[in-house]
Predict the structure.
Amino acid sequence: MTYNPRWVLNGLDLTAYPYSVIQDSADPGTAETVSAILASMIVDGDIELTQRRGNRAYELPVMIEGVDRAGIATAQADLVRAAEQSLGTLEFDPGDGSGVTVFETFAGTVSLANGTDDAAAGAGLQRLTVMMPCRPFVRPAAQTGIDAPPQPPSGTPPTDVTVDSGSATTGWAPGGAIYGSADEATIGANVSPFTGMVYVSANHEAEPSIDGIAGHYDQPVAHTPLGWLTRSATISYDATRPNLIITGRSRYRTGSYSGPRSGQIQIIGGYHSYSFWYDLVRTGWKYDAQLIFQNAAGAAIVPTSVTSTDGTGGFRATFAMTADIVGLTVKGQKTGSAAGYYDMQVGIDSIVKTAGQVSGIFSGKVQSRQVEIFGSQRTELSLAVLGLDASDAPVTLGDQTLIHTASAGSDGRAKFLGCRALSGLAGTSDPDAVTAVKTTVSTTASPTVFVFPATTPLPGEYVAYARIKAGSAATRTISYAAALDGTGALDASDPATGWYTKPVSVTTAYQIVPLGSLVLPPADIEDEAATLSIKVASDAAVDLDEVWLAHVESGQVTLLDTSGGGISAVRLDAATVDVPNPSAWVGVATATGAGAVMAAGVRIQAFDQHMAEPGLLQISTVTPGCATTRVSARYYRRYAHDVAPAPEAS
């Protein structure tokens, strides 16, 4: 079968009279590899790392036919003008119906192939060599468009699973001790103030005096109040519900002894003996007991947070599980010692496994979705984000819009992480927060700590973004750090990054601010059950909504100010040969799917040219003003040499 290939250079058809291409000598060239030599202690050979691809050079032999030299010169001038355009395209159609391959070109040169050939010129022919520098990879003539449909509010998190409702004593055992000595510990259920709970009441008092009279006590000794409940059944790890919530109540009271009181004479075997006794005065109930969580082996199970729920001993403890918990023990302990008497009571209301403990985590204001990118080489990406309300009508995006893109890969590791969402750290309700809760951040001596499995993030460099506000406009020094722990409790020997600091101008309204970069994890993970702690502190109080970690080795971030003017749409245009710099636009959409009135000059707070590798691409967005977004993307499929048919046509 005979094909008639066609070359068009910046609109000039090189296969139409007076031009023709000498096909057998056409050479599209190959992209140049720009690499670096990695320093190593390998004796022979080098480790070469590809940094990027350089341009290619397309050599195209062209014959001009004319009835005379004047005609040849005119055609030659047209060819030179086409070749010397600073930015352009060379389109190649093989003629077999497979489609056009486009080379993006820069200013090239036209030279005589073999000097001046009088014989050829006399015959009305002139052979020229056109040398065109091109971008390294080819593309089709048209862009590929992707529409990632809206993700509904609250997403589809797995439903919670109740491990224990705390309504019965079955499977629980009580305990109490003072300095290792067993004391009276009784178990019960559903007794005020432990309504609907299983509870332990661990009691200790000094021994009755020698006279044996009720209410008369021997001389007291100091001790530490301690009582606990132990659950015999194992709490199994669930990867879809990796977080655990334990709710309950704890309280204690102590007693003081007055005396000694006057004794009485007893005659025992002819000897006179005096018996002294003490009065016991009980205090009111107190609610500042320390809570300790352990497994059957006595190892600490460290919660990501423990918060008070009502001011009278109610507590909520959250945990990031990485393995089964065998033999859960919940202890109540009064720090320090009390003289002679105590009641320590601890109750369990519920134990629940959940995908995320914090209200608002699945609100839709933070969304991630995946789309497939076709081709064989990476390509520039154009993106659009449209805010929608419950009726699918355009709605404002919020004061800022954060967009992160990264190759999803096949390793299951996260490239965009919400620290509160992962750790389940609870906080104070705040309707202005993306997560619906906030935490007041203190100094480095008592930082806010997010704990989650260390195997969750893809290792590499991240940039941390925090959404914060303060009681008044001021400059705050925000500190952040990371630590890796394989034993369940952070200590001085755990690998850590140290504190990084950044001065930030805060206002009374929430704003997303870039804090800086972190390499995560801070050390190689040798224990698959290890946890990663992200710590945040401030030199003066600020309210923290969330901290997002964006992987920047495999991804790109854009942060735009979208406040004011009812902005409901954002568009990021990729750089092209015609417009060599990327651009950002914001605007107001009048209806779903309708073109928005876009304006340049948007206040850009962070900006990258978004790129896409072939395969699955993860697009993450943060839109504080709306719970549903529609994301669309446009890109040119890129190939090394020849453009493959569009996926829908294959």
User: Anything to note?
Assistant: The chain has four domains: 6-136, 139-154+360-411+554-650, 161-354, 416-549. The chain has a mean pLDDT of 83. DSSP finds three helices and 47 strands in the chain. Residues 69-83 form the longest helix (15 residues).
